[in-house]
Specification:
Elements (H helix, E strand, L loop, with lengths): L1 H17 L11 E15 L12 E16 L2 E16 L6 E16 L5 E11 L4 E6 L6 E7 L5 E14 L2 E14 L24 E18 L2 E12 L8 E11 L4 E12 L3 E17 L1
Antiparallel strand pairs: 1-2, 1-14, 2-3, 3-4, 4-5, 5-8, 6-7, 8-9, 9-10, 10-11, 11-12, 12-13, 13-14
Protein name: DUF3078 domain-containing protein
Keywords: Signal
InterPro entries: DUF3078
């Protein structure tokens, strides 16, 4: 129940915030595209005489955000490609660790109702990760840091699609309701065939299986606005309820991206993400990334 209330609150926040956005002229018919590439850096260093405590570290984060959209009359087709990958290295650690790893493709087609902001829609979403994920621990005998692989490319991967209704005020604000959404979860069967495996332990997938099918309701929303000159904030929200198993446990994926441009090529960026998926962990997963670096817009 708490997760349902939180989901409703997040969506309500999108709608209330958007009321202040002025109406925008629709883009012209045909294809239009825009993209942004960012390379962000974080670094801290302490010499041996530093008495205040601290660990030297280096981190880098690569972000690619590309939009490819099409419009013809009352038909729109919006596509968004997101890639995010980050690494950090702490002095004294055996391994370099990931700070972020996300590959996502969103596509939504809509046919506008006459004299309305509503559209008949069909959406598709695919997301996975680029590289292997690990859990880290200390060897009980040697005391050395060891790691165990828990995920990799296409394990897990999520594919969901379905028809629905979209309300679209502009390219910078819309939300989509899809009450009959099919979702597939793909994993490497090597993770579900280990001795002692229990059905559903690995992203909800059963013993010796590589896929899980779900049918449920999906809500997705996007909001982008300028906070002040050269400071832009984006909100991405995705909610999903599986009719076939514990429909009250709503999966939540919320991503906030705050972009602060210094000039054409330099910027600072803050990312906050909160995920809830009880097939993975029965608690919120939270990550934050902040860095400054190079930006290229195309």
């Amino acid at each position: 129940m708490k997760k349902l209330l939180l989901s409703a609150f997040l969506l309500f926040g999108f709608i209330v915030n958007a009321q202040e956005e002025p109406a925008q002229t629709p883009p012209p018919d045909g294809w239009n595209s825009e993209g942004k590439f960012q390379l962000l850096f974080n670094q801290s260093a302490f010499n041996k005489e530093w008495t205040g405590g601290g660990t030297s570290s280096m981190a880098a984060n690569l972000i690619l955000d590309y939009n490819l959209n099409y419009r013809k009359g009352n038909f729109t087709w919006d596509n968004k490609f997101l890639a995010n990958y980050g690494l950090t290295k702490l002095k004294g650690d055996e391994f370099t660790r990931k700070t972020s790893d996300r590959l996502e493709i969103n596509s939504i087609a809509g046919k506008q109702l006459e004299n309305s902001n509503w559209y008949y829609s069909f959406f598709a979403n695919f997301r996975t990760q680029f590289s292997k994920g690990y859990v880290y621990s200390k060897d009980a005998v040697t005391g050395l840091e060891v790691r165990e692989e828990t995920s990799h490319f296409i394990s897990p991967a999520y594919l969901q699609f379905g028809p629905g209704m979209m309300w679209k005020k502009s390219e910078d604000f819309w939300f989509n309701l899809a009450p009959a959404t099919a979702r597939f979860i793909f994993v490497d069967p090597d993770f579900t065939s280990v001795p002692g495996y229990v059905d559903g332990d690995y992203y909800g997938v059963d013993l010796n299986e590589s896929t899980r099918f779900e049918l449920g309701a999906s809500v997705s929303a996007f909001l982008k606005y300028e906070v002040m000159t050269n400071v832009t904030m984006e909100h991405n929200l995705s909610l999903y309820s599986n009719y076939l198993d514990k429909p009250g446990n709503v999966d939540i994926d919320y991503l906030l991206n705050l972009d602060m441009a210094v000039n054409k090529y330099l910027s600072a960026n803050f990312i906050f993400q909160a995920i809830y998926d009880d097939n993975t962990v029965g608690a919120f997963q939270i990550r934050e990334v902040f860095g400054a670096g190079l930006t290229y817009t195309f």
